[in-house]
Amino acid sequence: MSLIQTENLTKIYGAGETAITALDHLNLAVETGEFIAVMGPSGCGKSTLLHLLGGLDRMTEGRVVLDGKDIAALDDAALTELRRRKIGFVFQFFNLIPVLTALENAALPLILDGVKPAAAHAKATEWLSNLGLGDRTNSRPDQLSGGQQQRVAIARALVADPALVLADEPTGNLDSRAGDEIAGLLRQIASTWHRTVLMVTHDPRIAAYADRIVFLKDGRIVDESRLSGAGATEDAQNVRTKVEAL
Fold first, then answer.
1. Handedness of CA 127, 71, 4, 89 (dihedral sign)
2. How many CB atoms are closer than 10 A to CB 1?
3. 149: helix, coil or strand?
4. Which of 31, 110, 126, 139 ranks highest by number of CB atoms within 10 Å?
């Protein structure tokens, strides 16, 4: 069963002769527990797709259906609630609050949603431990490595038990070793914890951890690949070849 589905999803910026079509009647279905990578050249619509799926921007035409709800039909308050409870976001630059500890950063979405601090901290501690940071809960971001900071950001994305995790270049600010670790965690989030993960990346090596890769060009899906999901070198090379051909 599809957790999220787009139907003729279209986004046009501007009007008239200066209009730019970022997404052009795109149709995509993502299953529960699936790990999808989205790739394509600069300006192909990757970030726009992520923003529309996450309810961060409004489409020009078409539909996004998340867990049976048509995002376009929701008012701002309902959309905010959907994002807070159904979607977790992971960004390239972590976006942690410097003066808060790892525990406080990870618990923040629950605190903002009205959960009592003790319960929020317990849930955040659980996810930090799941992600290998059980001994760093009281560390501030500047006391953590880049890979550890991204793990805190992932814990923050998961703390509200969202059905969907959207990751925008989550390894783009990391070295290759830390990048592989984060890609492996995203793989685990899908396979072990049964969350749906959709990741935008430019790195074929990182994309090779996904179950499926969707290739975009000029706002349309032009190709797809099924992978082993293990980050295999052969898969990464095949992905690199397809990206270079776009």
1. negative
2. 8
3. helix
4. 110
Residues 187-219: b if buried by 16+ CB within 10 A, e if exposed = bbbbeeeebbbbbbbebbbbbbbbbbbbbbeeb
Q: What distance in Å separates the CA atoms of residue 157 and residue 106, rounded to the nearest whole number?
A: 8
Distance, in Å, from the CA atom of 177 to the CA atom of 184, rounded to the nearest integer, reads: 11
Q: CATH number of 2-245: 3.40.50.300, 3.40.50.720, 3.20.20.60, 3.30.70.580? A: 3.40.50.300
Buried b (16+ CB within 10 A) or exposed e, 120-153: bbebbbebbebbebeebbebbbeebebbbbbbbb
pLDDT tens, position by position, 165-191: 999 999 999 999 999 999 999 999 999
The CA R_g of the chain, rounded to the nearest whole Å, is 18
C-alpha 49/C-alpha 163 separation (Å) is 18
> Which among 98, 107, 106, 182 has a CA at the least distance from the CA of 143?
98
How far is the C-alpha of 30 from the C-alpha of 33, rounded, in Å? Answer: 9
In angstroms, rounded to a whole number, what is the distance separating the alpha carbons of residues 106 and 72? 29
**58 φ/ψ angles, rounded to the nearest 5 degrees:** -100, 140
Percent of the chain at pLDDT > 90 equals 82
Contact 67, 212 (CB under 8 A): no
Q: What angle do CA 69, 72, 73 make, to 5 degrees?
A: 65
